[in-house]
Write a structure and sequence with these properties.
alpha/beta, Rossmann fold, 2 domains, 8-stranded mixed β-sheet, 6-stranded parallel β-sheet, 14 helices, 18 strands, 21% strand
Length: 376
């Protein structure tokens, strides 16, 4: 008699390929790999047309919640967070041996803990970035105390935490004080797919990739391009991504007189075209002030192009760039410093295609193996 396969319930409000972002890409890559040794069901919002169940290969997607916009203006929607949290109680009737949940937007972790206790199952939570009390105050002002209370409470609910970067893992260990085990399983890349991608787009001087959100600071890149134009160096840029900041950034480019030099692309849906966009640039710029890891940074390094990032304290992608000797450049998060860094990267760029050897540490198969061990 065949042994029953383990059932894993992955719970996240947003998932690729329906929505783009770092955590979405992580689940998109990990789910089919985990499905090689287990039954995997992703419980999420209804991102697809048709019924509540969607199949993609060996992975089943179940809509436990209607599709509610993730953002209201420039911030995460409280209505969406509450709606998704309440709908997570539907897992009381689901079949699973372990729950693996995305930590954002925190509120859903309380009903998931209740479900885990009622079903006598483990709750494992992946933490993509750890904010802490200082960042919450900056983000919400006086109300940030409530946000920090929610995050600190959420840290105590799981039976185990998976940290998506070593730095996030270190922060979590300091905050939970040993009450919850924290295991590092960083994000990864598919080097084979990146190597197969060929540059097929119109060349650009610089490229940036990611969700167009306030903390990504793409406005800083535009200001740096304006500074370089004033120095007599007019560069072209390709901005790949979508999000609530898109129209504001387009207006900023127009005000700076850069509209004819900056291309906005929100229509790149497949990985190969995305990597081709990066390889078509002379440098990749990531001016984000906050990153829990930086998958796009890791992918750009794997594409073999010079990568520029800022030294902002909450930008954990800076640790990846710091390892890329000769290919990575770090600078202060100001337009002038970023402009200087872009000039240096373009003038001193190494031969194209020389990706750092240590990138082999970040392989999705290896990451999936670590996650599977935690969920066993």
């Amino acid at each position: 008699m065949a042994e029953r396969r383990r059932r894993i319930a992955l719970v996240t409000d947003a998932v690729g390929p329906f929505h783009r972002g770092g955590k979405e890409l992580r689940y998109l890559e990990l789910a089919p790999r985990l499905a090689r040794g287990a039954e995997v069901e992703v419980h999420t919002m209804r991102w697809w047309p048709g019924g509540r169940v969607h199949r993609d290969g060996e992975v089943t997607y179940r809509a436990i919640c209607p599709l509610v916009p993730l953002y209201r203006g420039r911030r995460r929607s409280i209505r969406q967070a509450v709606t998704f949290a309440v709908c997570c109680l539907r897992l009381l009737g689901a079949r699973f041996d372990v729950i693996e949940a995305d930590h954002m937007p925190y509120l859903q972790l309380l009903p998931l803990k209740l479900v885990a206790l009622a079903r006598r199952r483990r709750l494992v939570v992946t933490w993509h970035e750890c904010w802490g009390p200082e960042y919450w105050r900056e983000y919400l002002g006086p109300a940030g105390r409530i946000g920090w209370w929610c995050e600190s409470l959420a840290m105590r609910l799981p039976d185990a935490i998976i940290a998506a970067s070593p730095q996030t893992g270190a922060r979590l260990r300091r905050l939970v004080g040993g009450r919850v085990p924290v295991i590092d399983a960083p994000n990864g890349i598919d080097r084979g797919r990146i190597e197969r991608a060929r540059s097929g787009l119109e060349p650009s001087d610089v490229v940036t990739v990611g969700r167009l959100l306030p903390h990504k600071r793409v406005d800083l890149l535009l200001d740096a391009l304006g500074t370089l134009r004033d120095r007599g160096r007019s560069l072209t840029a390709r901005i790949v991504g979508s999000g609530p900041e898109r129209e504001r950034l387009r207006e900023r480019a127009h005000v700076l007189g850069l509209a004819d030099r900056v291309e906005f692309r929100d229509d790149i849906d497949d990985a190969e075209t995305l990597y081709a966009a990066v390889k078509s640039a002379r440098a990749a710029v990531f001016p984000s002030e906050r990153e829990g890891f930086g998958i796009a940074v890791l992918e750009a390094l794997a594409c073999g192009v010079p990568v520029i990032a800022t030294t902002a304290p909450d930008n954990l992608a800076r640790h990846l760039v710091a390892r890329a000797d000769g290919l990575g450049t770090l600078c202060e998060p100001t337009p002038e410093a970023l402009a200087d860094a872009i000039e240096r990267a373009l003038d001193d760029a190494p031969p194209a295609g020389q990706a750092p050897e240590w990138l082999s540490e970040y392989d999705w198969d290896e990451v999936a193996g670590r996650v599977a061990e935690v969920l066993a």
